[in-house]
Amino acid sequence: MLLALLLITIAPAAGRPLSPPLLAGQRLILSSHLSMVEDSKGLMSADSLFRNPQGFQPLTNGWKGNPTSYYWLRASIHSDSISPSRVLSFSHLTYVDIYLYSNNGLVLHKLAGAFRPRDELSEGDGRLFTILPLQPGKDYTILLQVHHTKHYQPVFDFQMQSKRVFFDGLRLRETFDAALLGAVCLFFLYTLLSWIVSRFRPYAWLLLFISGIGLYVIGSSGYLIEWLSPQDPEAGWMMNVHFLHAGMLGLYFLLADFWRLRTDFPRFYTWVRWVPAIIAVSSIASFCIDYFTSNYTLTATIACVEHPVMLAFIVSALYTCWSRLSPAQRYLGYGIMLCGATGLFITVNAMVNEERAIATSSVVGDCIVLATVLLFSTGLKEEMRHHEVAKQAALAELNRLQQHQNSILENKVAERTEELAISNKRLLKQKQLLGERNTKIETLINELNHRVKNNLQLLYSLLSLQLPMVKDGASREILKGNIGKIRAMMLVNQKLFNFDQGRGVSLCEFIGEMAAHLQKIYDTREKTRILQDIPAGIRLTDRHTLSFGLILSELFTNTFKHAFKDHADPCIHVQAKSLNGNLLEFIYSDNGMGIADNDNDERFTMGIPLIRDLTRQMNGQMSINEESGLSYCFTIPV
Amino acid sequence: MVRILVIEDEIIIGRFIERHLRTNFDCEISVAVSAAEARAAMASFLPHLLLCDIQMEEELSGINLITELRRRYAFEVIYITSYQNRSIIEKAAATNPANYIIKPIDESQLFAGVQIVMSRLETDAQTGKAYLQSNTLFTEMELRILRLIREKKTTIAIAEDLHLSRFTIKNHRHTICRKLQLSDENNALLKWVVQNGNLLK
Description:
The complex is a heterodimer.
Chain A: H1 2-9, E1 27-29, E2 35-39, H2 46-51, E3 57-58, E4 70-78, E5 86-89, E6 95-102, E7 105-112, E8 129-132, E9 139-147, E10 159-162, H3 163-198, H4 201-220, H5 223-228, H6 233-238, H7 240-258, H8 261-264, H9 266-272, H10 275-293, H11 296-321, H12 327-353, H13 357-466, H14 473-496, E11 505-506, H15 507-522, E12 529-533, E13 539-540, H16 542-563, E14 571-579, E15 583-590, H17 607-617, E16 621-625, E17 630-637
Parallel strand pairs in A: 12-14
Antiparallel strand pairs in A: 1-10, 2-3, 2-4, 4-9, 5-8, 5-10, 6-7, 6-9, 11-13, 14-15, 15-17, 16-17
Chain B: E1 2-7, H1 11-24, E2 27-32, H2 35-45, E3 49-53, H3 61-70, E4 73-74, E5 76-81, H4 86-93, E6 99-102, H5 107-123, E7 129-130, H6 140-150, H7 155-162, H8 166-180, H9 186-196
Parallel strand pairs in B: 1-2, 1-3, 3-5, 5-6
Antiparallel strand pairs in B: 4-7
């Protein structure tokens, strides 16, 4: 650098013929040797200008002209004998035609420039440099036609170096760029992997930021054009600013997401959510301007206006959020500060140095990406560590809760068991009480049964005792009838209140016992034969037993009292059969005298109506037949 | 003469009650030994007074039977039962009986229990009748008109109430008079309604 400065200060007067006994590694700044003519329409030809150099003016510092005019530059060279081949290089100009004249005329015509398609370049040349194959010890005139289409004021920073030195420098720069790019790519990969593994969204924004800024840097250095669109460099160049915008978007979203602006700083967020829109609008505007007018100066100006907006956003974000950020988030804050500072630097640089700032910004951009990524990664690691710690704490808490829950559950189980035991005890007690009650009821029922039996027995005994005292015949008969009925009741009672037997009373057994008892009362000599024809299976229901017993008692009483007056072979025939399962047919007959002979018999004032009533009560039918003796036929539902 | 229906499933007890009432009161008596017999007797005999046993065949069937009969007939009821249980007495009271006689019964209890009710029945013309039902003599519309007449409404008011023309109402009134065999004049029907209003429900 010092050497360069020295060279600039001791630069020879403009327009002087160039006789560079250049040492290896020295570089010659051509600007002080150039003279210039402006060709606003591009009508002049190299040949005419070579022959008529009168119009050329010495090049002065700080001149101004129409940026898009054609300019012709002229310099005379005297080549030395040591290393004749030279490289002519420049930094930004879009179209440069190089004419090399010797005394004999045109030696060489080459094309160069940032926007030259690949196939217009000569073998071994780059867009921003060209090889001049000078013969040793000869004089040359170089004519350069410059057309800078980017609307920047063209800067004629032509340099000449020996071929070896230039390519060494180029290689050095490329190596440096490659190293930086490699580092950026590494970070990119690292971030990509982190994103895939963790699915933590800020990584995605960081990816956007890295790729945006990285591509911008690659594009600014011209590599992207070389790789992707060598035939249309301008198109490749146009994309640069968009990469920058993408990077800015990435940075914005990274900040918004990682600092949780939406939830933690909602008021601030309502203002800053327009930032992406501003970036998008400016991106679209830039594209239109570049595509239709190629006015890169205007684009740069827009960017310079836009950068303060971003800066303001960054500063306000830092100012608003800083006090409430976690340490991890603060790391990103440092990165953002760095970005802000860089942005400020680049903007100022661009305003002062215009196009020349691009060269520096690429390196600075790379560095800033690296720094930001490093800081952010540190922050994230910090965050992850915090997460881990928090997770551990949460797990411990969960564990504790689980244990608490367990103990509560155990308590509940114990309580429930106790309750169950209590209720069990209560149930046992109830069972005991029920048992007691049951025995009490049983005792009561037995008592009741006993009383009923006893009372009936008392009545029976009383009437039986009184029977001999009654002398009146009719009264005796009534008393006997009643004794018979009480006997029937006693029998029914005895049959019904027998717990162990099944429900109902066996008809056969019942009739037999009734007949025997009544015979004892009326037919003391047991002259009468009683024939029974009753199937064993027929049973009487509880409800009907008493009525049936009373009917039987009435029938037997009637027969014994009235039928067999001096009968030789008294006989009573009792039959029963079941009719279609739910009807019982019962036939009672005697072979005594019928009704006709005893017309005014008392049994027809009291006996038969009672039998009829009782049959009606049983919901049955009854008929009387007088063919031989007296026969009653009953049908009773069972 | 007062008509009495004895509902008692023990026929001998029923006969005892019948005999006793016959000797003490000037009345006609019928005995029913089951709910079915009681229902049949109600329609033909139209008793003024029922003596009903609560426990017939199944528990409380007497009360259920009375509740059922109350819907169709106008009568007084005396329960005869061995139950002294408070809740059963309350249930029986819900059917609005005239008296409640507890077994075992003897002649004097029976006389006292029935006498109170008999003296009232002899002066009261409200019992011993079946309520008018829409499916027997009158249509539902005629019954509605009769009820409105009972509320002392004129033919015009009735027409307004039922949203019918007053000629339609007149027509109905004519039909009713014919069915009741009344002379076709307004006062005859009104008198009938005043006397038999309670049968309209």
